[in-house]
Amino acid sequence: MASINGKTIWVTGASSGIGLALVKELSKYSCNLIISSRRENALEQVKMACQNPENVAVLPMDLQNHAQMEAVSQKAIAFFGAVDILVNNAGVSQRSLILDTDFEVYKKLMDINYLGTVTLSKAILPHFIANKSGHFVTVTSLMGKFGSPYRSGYCGAKHALHGFFDVLRMEHEKDNVKVTMICPGFVQTNVAKNALTGNGAPQQEDDVATQNGITAEVAATKIIKAIKKDKFEAYVGGKEVKGVYLKRFFPKLLHKVVLKSQVR
């Protein structure tokens, strides 16, 4: 089991939800943290809530601004001289039927969840190769393994991340670059409230499944355990995790189970 003590860990989407819980839990270790999201004021508050704020650097960024990623990566490296682990956690969800969803919403979901993550990861990859060490921890979703109604664009972007990072892992194993895919199910965050509807506006409402999910703190503990174990993939959630195995062995049964669940 690898240690994260002494490492520099960069977490995107760090101002709320899983990212916030992950940063707080990581701050209990003797490691350096770089925290990113679009909201600098919120990041400063997160920093002060950490156990060792002097070891936390704030780096605002917008994942949708792809041209910014090269410069942002260089800033991240400059804080502590290196980045050892990049946690690709930032993203946005969706709640709308295919028929009701504008194309621009699909484009935004791909620009943020997929292309933004790919662009940032490509920007830091040469640094990992030069150091002969690096770890991409990419938070996708169980929706990156199987689908569910009202989430077509979100599922598409998360499935795409699995394809990209599976190949990255293969191509750069020789450079000692590792990849861990984290697939959360229902976690008690604002993901449903912030989810894009068919016209691009946020849903602004929670849902029962999210409210009944595991806490973000429990999710953070499980994610850190997966990082330490250098897992290829980790499924984080409740009974919905079983969907991964149903998809693999009984896809028609999963289809019926998801439709019967009427999860919105």
Automatic annotation (TrEMBL):
Q: Which PROSITE patterns match?
A: ADH_SHORT
Q: Which UniProt keywords apply?
A: Oxidoreductase
State the NCBIfam families in the record.
PRK06181.1
The entry's protein name is SDR family oxidoreductase
Q: The organism sits in which domain of life?
A: Bacteria
InterPro entries per the record?
Answer: KR_dom, NAD(P)-bd_dom_sf, Sc_DH/Rdtase_CS, SDR_fam
Tell me which Pfam families the record gives. adh_short
**Can you give the residue ranges of the Ketoreductase domain?**
7-190
The similarity annotation says: Belongs to the short-chain dehydrogenases/reductases (SDR) family.
